[in-house]
Amino acid sequence: MAEITTVLLHGLLGDRHDWASVTHHLTGPWLALDLPGHGEQRDLDVADFAECDRWLRDTLSQHGVTRYRLAGYSLGGRIALYHASLQPQGLTALWLENSHPGLPEVERAMRLAHDARWARRFESEPLPTVLHDWYCQGVFSDLDTQEREHLVVRRLGNRGEAVAAMLRATSLGHQPELRTWLATTTLPVTYVAGRRDHKFHNLACQLATPGSTIDLRVLDGGHNLHAALPEVYARELARWATQPEEKST
Known about the structure:
Blueprint (H helix, E strand, L loop, with lengths): L4 E5 L10 H4 L6 E4 L15 H14 L5 E6 L1 H11 L5 E7 L7 H20 L2 H8 L10 H10 L5 H10 L9 H6 L4 E6 L3 H10 L7 E5 L5 H4 L1 H12 L8
Parallel strand pairs: 1-2, 1-3, 3-4, 4-5, 5-6
Helix pairs in contact: 2-3, 4-7
């Protein structure tokens, strides 16, 4: 029987190299991917979550991955969650890092408008300016000035038009609301939240209520835990990725 591969999906503006600080702790096979519109896939456009899912299935097939654990951060986690909700054959466990399960119907139009404004900015303004403002959002409030500027420089390899297209295609306003699925699935789900990311920490606590099967792990960091706490995060990820198979199916 084939080994289980740990598949890693980065967040918006990132690339597969974002996981470099943690993958050295993984003892089994792993695969970090560039999302559509990012890294070596920056010229690949997708229209919606369904096309993201087809891209992911095709990519796993191309790499010969038939049995896998799926880990995602932020946008990568939302894509991973959508994929998992379709119950793909071969998926054995899900790891979500500060990822949203989806909005109620009444909140989606506002979110679509919010993401459309950012998309227009990424298309029309100098990338350094938009990136600086992006990392000044409340969800990144744990970053100091030096950390923020480091991220801006790190993300300058992006193409504004590609980021805009991905923002529109995978807006939280388009994502199905998957709280019920998370509450009822038999797939092992681990949610990793940052204590200093108040929005997602509170969200994680709402999801992992008493009686829930979600394995909630809270780390003393903000939104991007694998970047801020690589050693601690790597140990947690490695433990998850080496669970006995009978606990992952």
